[in-house]
């Protein structure tokens, strides 16, 4: 049996659209799921993952789904009348290098299951790709959409596979498959899941907690980046763009590029005395193979992509979002220390 709706991503009308989001509890899903629910109604977005959180359970429908389990994925799709799959379940670059066998299984089989079921049941698919599809012999500056793709990480290899397979299903089966090659995504809600660009989130927590950060990339490792607010806007813009406006299945998208040293300087302007030092590890070697900047002119031309946050706005947004939790923690710590001191005083006086 097919659900047979022939859904297209460009038609997000609340009455016909039902999203299944895989890997929904990760850095991007934790914000994309509420964002989509605000657009199409909470019951029309089924979140799924192999882990969960209180906010995910309270926010709307949630199902356990290991993307390697094709039968369970099929059951969820058919029982819920799913029309669109947003496929986020992936092992990122650093965790992928630590466990390549698992990354191959989750990333390759997960993507194959999504695409096969989508073709069979006439669903649409949005599945992000990444700058990790590029490699050491790709042009590093203003990297175009179509260029050399010989990645050095298992993550990058699985994402090239995803891009090619998505294109294949679009060509051979008319599948509405859409993808953005995200740069590093910077956000304040969920922690990043183990990538090379994670430093650009960790640094804000360290600045507020300790006023100092030891970076696992070198100071001059320039990479393309984007704030989550821009990531959500770009994602929804591509998902809802009219199909006839699109000239490709996978688009480069970026907002800005910076090095760890430049980010640290911008943070120090807002957190006086903030200091950074560098202890590069294997992730620095990965970063050296990725683009420093991206040409996203096709996205800007075809579906009107425009980013909103530059470096200073991004830094201000992250610090404003995170500061209350660190101020609360500091106040609680001070209150606990004062209470402990008070308890000790009568003992000291009696002695
Ligand atoms: N965050 C970024 O900076 C970034 C950049 C480029 C591309 N992307 C892409 O965006 C997508 C989402 O990335 P993210 O940053 O949210 O990743 P993440 O690591 O934060 O989240 C991935 C989620 O997948 C889940 N997962 C792992 N194995 C699973 C399995 N077998 N079945 C089901 N779920 C499983 C994890 O529990 C986790 O919640 C990925 O396709 C990634 O390649 C992310
Ligand atoms: C860039 C991206 O795909 C992810 N943030 C990683 O570093 O692995």
From TrEMBL:
Residues 20-253 form the NAD-dependent epimerase/dehydratase domain. It comes from the Eukaryota. It catalyses: L-threonine + NAD(+) = (2S)-2-amino-3-oxobutanoate + NADH + H(+). It is an enzyme of class 1 (oxidoreductase). GO terms for molecular function: L-threonine 3-dehydrogenase activity. Pathway: Amino-acid degradation; L-threonine degradation via oxydo-reductase pathway; glycine from L-threonine: step 1/2. Transmembrane segments: none annotated. Its EC number is 1.1.1.103. GO terms for biological process: L-threonine catabolic process. Gene3D superfamilies: NAD(P)-binding Rossmann-like Domain. Belongs to the NAD(P)-dependent epimerase/dehydratase family. Catalyzes the NAD(+)-dependent oxidation of L-threonine to 2-amino-3-ketobutyrate, mediating L-threonine catabolism. This is L-threonine 3-dehydrogenase, mitochondrial.
């Amino acid at each position: 049996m097919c659900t047979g709706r022939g859904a297209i991503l460009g038609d997000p009308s609340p009455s016909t659209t039902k999203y299944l989001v895989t890997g929904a509890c990760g850095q991007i899903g934790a914000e994309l799921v509420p964002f989509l629910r605000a657009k199409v109604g909470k019951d029309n977005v089924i979140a799924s993952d192999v882990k969960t959180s209180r906010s995910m359970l309270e926010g709307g429908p949630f199902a356990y789904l290991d993307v390697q389990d094709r039968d369970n994925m099929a059951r969820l799709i058919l029982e819920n009348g799913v029309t669109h799959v947003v496929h986020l379940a992936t092992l990122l670059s650093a965790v992928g290098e630590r466990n390549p066998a698992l990354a191959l299984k989750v990333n390759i089989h997960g993507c194959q299951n999504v695409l096969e079921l989508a073709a069979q049941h006439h669903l649409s698919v949005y599945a992000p790709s990444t700058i990790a599809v590029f490699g050491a012999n790709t042009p590093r500056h203003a990297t175009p959409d179509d260029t050399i793709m010989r990645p050095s990480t298992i993550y990058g290899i699985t994402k090239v596979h995803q891009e090619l397979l998505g294109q294949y299903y679009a060509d051979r089966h008319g599948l509405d498959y859409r993808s953005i090659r995200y740069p590093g995504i910077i956000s304040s809600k969920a922690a990043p899941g183990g990538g090379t660009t994670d430093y650009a989130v960790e640094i804000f927590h360290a600045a507020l907690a300790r006023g100092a950060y030891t970076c696992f990339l070198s100071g001059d490792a320039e990479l393309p980046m984007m704030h989550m607010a821009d990531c959500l806007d770009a994602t929804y813009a591509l998902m809802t763009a009219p199909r006839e406006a699109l000239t490709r299945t996978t688009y480069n998208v970026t907002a800005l590029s910076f090095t760890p040293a430049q980010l640290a300087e911008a943070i120090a302007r807002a957190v006086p005395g903030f200091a950074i030092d560098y202890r590069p590890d294997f992730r620095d070697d990965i970063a050296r193979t990725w683009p420093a900047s991206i040409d996203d002119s096709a996205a800007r031309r075809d579906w009107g992509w425009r980013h909103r946050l530059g470096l200073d706005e991004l830094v201000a947004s992250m610090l404003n979002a995170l500061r209350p939790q660190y101020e609360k923690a500091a106040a609680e710590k001070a209150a606990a220390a004062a209470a402990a001191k008070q308890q000790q005083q009568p003992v000291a006086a009696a002695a």
